[in-house]
Amino acid sequence: MPVLTAAILAGFVAYAGAWYLGRLEGNFALLLFLATLVTGLYWLAERLYFLPRRRKAVAQLEQQTARRQQDLAAKGITQVDNVDLAEAKSRLLMQPWWLDWTAGLFPVILVVFLLRSFLFEPFKIPSGSMIPTLLVGDLILVNKYHYGIRLPVLNTKITEGKPLQRGDVVVFRYPPKPSLDYIKRVVGVPGDEVAYLNKRLTVNGQPVPISSVPEFFDQDAMRYFKQYEEKLGDKPHRLLIDDDRPAFIPGVENFAFKDQCRYSVEGVVCKVPEGNYFMMGDNRDNSLDSRYWGFVPDANIVGKAFFIWMNFGSFGRIGAFN
């Protein structure tokens, strides 16, 4: 068992190392599921087999010690060697390293697996596509059950949950490469006609209300951007528009239902298909979103982003956001 356990642990380390070095596309959900399964099997083996064996060895030691004392007493010997029986029993009951690193970790790994799969999952914002709502380095929490609980790895929905609403900030698996997680704002739901022409958003023929607010200073770019407050859904949110960028959308990829979109020098108009959503970043001119790579299927939805739990560069950013 020690050799087998060492090989299994080495396999996990090799997988994580190759993922970290970019040698393969990792799947953390799968890795966590396998870790839970393997450590769970060791935990069961510990409870049902290895621990009873160690307890049996302790009982045998106690019986042998008692018989020895009885035999010596029968021979009139009362002075015997002092043996630290408690220490001997403790050593017999102690888990070997290969059980300590598997069965011993199972409760922690199980809790992490359940929390991450069905309740909340942490993410780190890697880019500026959601500025000013979310900044690079924000550590956020995503509600995994708001839109319905999904089975881990398989991503099969087992409860319906609430429908996605326009204005929600959502984490989803990037359609062209599902191993990547993206975060954007829901702009169009199934059946909507979304138009983004000359940098103005219209949904179903109705312009989305927008008003000017003070400019936003981007510390990374070291410049000011025009900032607006837009009301898409129940609550307003802020967005950036760069007047120096053209309204034309370059580099559009081929994607499913592309025939539902019409591109022009002014922008794009799309009819959102059933079971799909149209996503856009709040940093409108610095966001690769549905305008470029298409619609997000419902099967790709991960959860609703709702809370910044840490930003090591600015503790004041901790809190909920729209």
UniProtKB/TrEMBL annotation:
Ranges in coiled-coil conformation: none
Family: Belongs to the peptidase S26 family.
Residue ranges occupied by any Peptidase S26 domain in the UniProt entry: 99-310
Primary subcellular site in the record, as a coarse category: membrane
Top enzyme class: hydrolase
PROSITE patterns for this protein: SPASE_I_1, SPASE_I_2, SPASE_I_3
Name assigned to this protein: Signal peptidase I
Its EC number(s): 3.4.21.89
Catalytic reactions of this protein: Cleavage of hydrophobic, N-terminal signal or leader sequences from secreted and periplasmic proteins
Protein's cellular compartments: Membrane
Spans traversing the lipid bilayer: 28-45, 98-119
InterPro entries: LexA/Signal_pep-like_sf (IPR036286), Pept_S26A_signal_pept_1 (IPR000223), Pept_S26A_signal_pept_1_CS (IPR019758), Pept_S26A_signal_pept_1_Lys-AS (IPR019757), Pept_S26A_signal_pept_1_Ser-AS (IPR019756), Peptidase_S26 (IPR019533)
Organism whose genome encodes this protein: Pseudorhodoferax aquiterrae
Lineage: Bacteria, Pseudomonadati, Pseudomonadota, Betaproteobacteria, Burkholderiales
